[in-house]
Structure formats: structure tokens, C-alpha cells
Amino acid sequence: MISANNLPAFFDKFSPETSLQYIDLHIHTEDSDGLIKPKFIKDFLKNVPHLISITDHNSIKNNLKLCTTKNLNVVPGIEIGCKDSFEFLIYFDTAQELEDFYINSVEPFKNKYKITRTEKMYQFYLEEAKQYNSFISIPHIAGIAQKNYLKNKSYIKGVLQEVDALEIYNHAIPKNRNLIAQKLRKKEDKLATFGSDAHINKEIISFHNFQNNFYEFSYYKKNFYNICSIVALFGKHLYHLFEIS
Fold it and tell me: How many CB atoms lie within 10 A of CB 143?
């Protein structure tokens, strides 16, 4: 499920490695609502054949920073949050295209009070992204609470027709939710992406163990780290509100 063999052809150009040990197309850093620093990512992947994407919410600073870092294989990407909380993972052919998209279509419409939102609806971002050589995936389509688009977005069937892929494995949500996404991907005949959706360092380590060292992987630890991440997210969002008030 999580292997280079399952990666869409769009991502082939971003890694010269033939045997990838770590694939993660959904990472959040301190540049949005995560706590992960670029230095940790660089150090962690130093001797690990990999392909990653920093997909901060409505922000590209650390993606662009790591895209230009030697010996890192990084896909230009961003996680877009729409006005009603729907989200897209959008990947680009080049860092310049990502930057142009951000400057023209994201930065002017950021929600001042909510890190994960903009002032535009999903139709706007589908149209804007398709002006570039982009690849669009829906993350955590059967996630928890507002992230469960199958349950709370009446227009989801229409959106499914417009995107390239579904995220079939998200390390931050329960196994049964990912199984729903996997079945839906086959039904809709879509391509697949997968990622940690990490906001803290331990989630990166856990996802690496899940891919490579299953004997070291623990669902109990995974769930504990996910809870820690939720607490960290709450704190980061609260800090953001105080910072702008």
C-alpha cells in the first residue's frame, strides 16, 4: 500500500532513489500548525532514501526552504484550507509554480484568525490549481469530525470527479477510516497518495517505523502520539489567536 510502486507517475521526477524507505506526502511544520522544525527533517532523513512533501496549511515557506536543500527529495506542495474547512493537498511540478500559486491564489485570501482556512471555497482552488501542472489529492476523506468529508460535505461526489487522487493512508487517523478511503479510491478509480499528517517529531518516527520496522511499530504509541499532536495543535491555534489579537 505504502510503497514507491503505488506512487502516481507525477512523483517519479522528484526522487532519484530506486528503493525508497520513507515516503511521506503530508507533513506539517512550525510554519503552520505543526511543531516540526526543518532541521529535524534534514537530520532524520540524512541516510534514509526518501520522498517527502511539506504541506503546511496555506503556507509554503518551509517547503521552499527544503526544496532547495541538498540531498533532500521534496515535492513542492501545500495543504489548502477552504472557507468551509474542506482541504486539498496540491502538489506542483516546480517550486516556482508552487510559489506563483501561493502568491496569486492563497496569500491574498488567508483567514486572519484560522491557520487552516482561507476565504475561498473549494471551486476556486480547483480552478486555480488546474492552471498549473498540478496534482490534487483529497486528504483524510473519511477522517474524524469536520475532516470526514464523506459525512459532512454534500458536494463531495462532485469534488471526487475533479481531483487526481485520494489519500488512502493517513497515519493520524484510525485504521478503519483509512480502509474506507482505500475502498472509495478503487470505486472511483483514482490514484493514491499517503502520508503521516505529522505535526510533531514522534509522528514522523512512528510513520517511518510503520513503513520499515514493523516490529518496532506500536499502535498504542501511534495513538498516544496522535493525542499529543492534537494537544499541540490546540496550543498552536490558541497562540495564533492571542498573537493577532
Answer: 23
The tally of CA atoms less than 13 A away on the side-chain side of residue 12 is 5
The answer, yes or no, to whether residue 119 has pLDDT greater than 90, is: yes
Distance CA 76, CA 103 (A): 14
pLDDT at 238 over 70: no
Contact 132, 93 (CB under 8 A): yes
What is the tens place of the pLDDT at every residue in 46-64?
Answer: 999 999 999 999 999 999 9
CATH code, 238: 3.20.20.140
Q: What is the pLDDT of residues 122-162, one digit of tens each?
A: 999 999 999 999 999 999 999 999 999 999 999 999 999 99
The interaxial angle of helices 201-212 and 219-244, nearest 10 deg, is 150
pLDDT at 1 over 90: no
Task: In whole angstroms, give the CA distance from residue 138 to residue 90.
Answer: 9
How many CB atoms are located within 10 Å of the residue 208 CB? 21
Of 11, 18, 10, 68, which Cα lies nearest the Cα of 42?
68
Q: By C-alpha distance, which of 188, 158, 29 is closest to 86?
A: 158
Domain count, the chain: 1
Range of the domain at 52: 4-244
Residue identified by cell 511540478 is 93
In sequence order, what are the residues at sequence separation of 6 or more whose Cβ sits closer than 8 angstroms to the Cβ of residue 192? 6, 8, 165, 166, 167, 168, 185
Position 242 scores a pLDDT of 64
Non-local CB neighbours of 81 within 8 Å, separated by 6+ positions: 57, 58, 87, 111, 114, 115, 116, 117, 118
